[in-house]
Amino acid sequence: MTTTDSPTAAAVSPPPRAPRRRSSGDTERGFSRIFRWIATGAGALILATLAAVALFLLLRAWPAIIASDEEVSAAVGRIPDGTSLLEFTGPLIFGTLLAALLALAVAMPVAMGIGLFISHYAPPRLAQLLSYLVDLLAAIPSVVYGLWGFIVLAPVLKPFWFWLGDVFGWFPLFAGDVAATGKVLATVAVVLAVMILPIITAVSREVFNQTPKLHQEAALALGATRWEMVRMAVLPFGRSGVISAAMLGLGRALGETMAVLMIISPGFLVYSFEILTTAQHSTIASFIALDFGEATGLAVNALIATGLALFLITMAVNMTARAIVARRKEFSGAN
After folding, report:
1. pLDDT, tens digit, 9 for 90 and up, residues 237-280
2. What's the confidence (pLDDT) of residue 20?
3. What are the tens digits of pLDDT across the range 38-56?
4. What is the model's pTM?
5. pLDDT digits over 116-145, tens only?
6. In order of start, what are the domains of the chain with their CATH numbers?
7. How far apart are CA 241 and CA 210, in angstroms?
8. CA 136, CA 156: separation in Å to the nearest integer?
C-alpha cells in the first residue's frame, strides 16, 4: 500500500513578496517635505539674525543710554559739555531723514518715468539696453558716487543753487547763505537720488510689465490714448509695487555712508531746513563712519546707540511700507 505524505508536510511555503516599488508620488512628497523644512529654516535664520543684530545693538548701546549727560559729552568730545545722548542724536536723525526724503522726492518721478518708458513706450531693443544700463548703476560702489558728487556734481550744481537761493530764498529749504563750494545737503540729495534710482526703476519696471494685457487692451479698445491707458490700467495695478520700490530706495538712502561723508561738512546739534547752507547737517551713518575709528570706551557705546536709532528708523519704514502695501493690495487689481 502506497502511503502519501500528510498535508502539512506537503504544504508549500508561499513565495516571497516582491519589494514595494517606490512610486513617483512618494518621491515628490519626500522632496516637498525636505524643501518645506529648508524654507522654514531659512525663514527662521532671517528672524534669528535680525534678533541677534537688535540684541547686539541694544546691549552695546545700553551703557551710553544709562550714562549721565556729562559722561556722554566727555566721551564723544565733539559736542558741548552737558549734552545728552538724545540731544546730539536728534539732529543726526533729522539730517538722515531730511536727506533721504529729499533724495526720494527727486528719484521717484524720474524712476517711474524711466520704468514706464521701458515697459510701455520704448522699442524692444532700446528697452533692453536701457534696462541693462539702469541695472548697471546699482553695481557702482558708493565711494565712486561720492567722488563724482564731490569733484564733478558739486561745481556743476553750484550756479543752480545760487539761482534757487536768489529766487526762492523766501522758502525755508532754500533760505540762508548759499555755500560757495556747492557741497551742501542739496547736492547730497541729488547723489543719493542717483544711487537709489536703479532700485526704484527696476522694481517699478517689473511691476508695470505685470499689468494684465486684457486690462490694457480693454482700455485701448474703448478709445483711450496710450497715456490714458497707463493712467487707468497700469498705474492703479502697480501702485503697491511702486510703494514697495520707494521704501526700498528710502532704506538705501537712510543707510548711505561714504557718499554723504565725502560731500558735506558735518554739522552737529542743528535742526535746519537750509539745504543750501554748509555745516548744517549730518547723518547717522556718516557720523559713525567719521568717528568710529578713533572712538574708545563710552564713545563707542554712544555711536552704537545712534546706530540703534537708525536700525529702528529703518524697521519703522519697512513696517509702514508693508502696512501700506497690505491695505492697497485689494485695490491694486492684482486679485
Report:
1. 888 888 888 888 888 888 888 888 888 877 776 788 888 888 78
2. 56
3. 988 888 998 899 899 999 9
4. 0.81
5. 898 888 888 888 888 888 888 888 888 899
6. 87-331 (1.10.3720.10)
7. 10
8. 24
Residue 8 has pLDDT above 60, yes or no: no
Note the pLDDT of residue 222: 81
317: left (phi over 0), alpha (psi -120 to 50) or beta: alpha
Q: Which residue has the cell 517711474?
A: 112
